[in-house]
Write a structure and sequence with these properties.
This protein has 3 helices and 4 strands. It has 139 residues and is of the alpha/beta class. Helix 2 packs antiparallel against helix 3.
Length: 139
């Protein structure tokens, strides 16, 4: 209030692409994208079969479908607010998974859902993580 000093945000430590590239080099382990689909009974999963969605997701995230790398989980919900259909995706940060590429994945998934005859527009959420911080086992 009344100050003539302009706010100047701090410069970032390093560009995001460099951080993602460094993280990718640090981890040689294969980390699966995990996709959780939440839908109300009104939307239903019968109109969105798992097999075609799984294939589409493997194509979009460039993982081989037969390798079992991508995990798809359907979570039925009695009610959800505000969106009746949500695709919650968590995957390894990789150089090709840029913000622009992930926006394209979001749009492609919206189109895929519409092509299945579902009128509700899904909320698609993608979170990319640093693979050096993940620990998993297949017991």
């Amino acid at each position: 209030f009344g100050s003539s000093v302009a706010f100047k945000p701090a410069a970032p430590r390093e560009p995001a692409r460099i951080r993602i590239a460094l993280r990718s080099r640090l981890s040689a382990t294969v980390a699966m994208p995990l996709v959780k689909v939440f839908a109300t009974k009104a939307v239903g999963f019968t109109r969105l079969p798992a097999a075609p969605l799984y294939s589409k997701l493997c194509d979009l995230f460039k993982v081989p479908a037969g390798a079992g790398i991508l995990q798809l989980i359907y979570c039925p919900a009695e009610d959800m607010v505000p969106d009746p259909l949500v695709l919650d995706i968590r995957g390894k940060a990789k150089p090709d998974r840029t913000p622009e590429a992930m926006q394209t994945v979001c749009r492609d998934l919206e189109t895929f859902v519409k092509d299945q005859g579902i009128t509700e527009v899904p909320r698609v959420r993608i979170e990319l993580y640093d693979p050096t911080l993940q620990h998993a086992n297949k017991g």
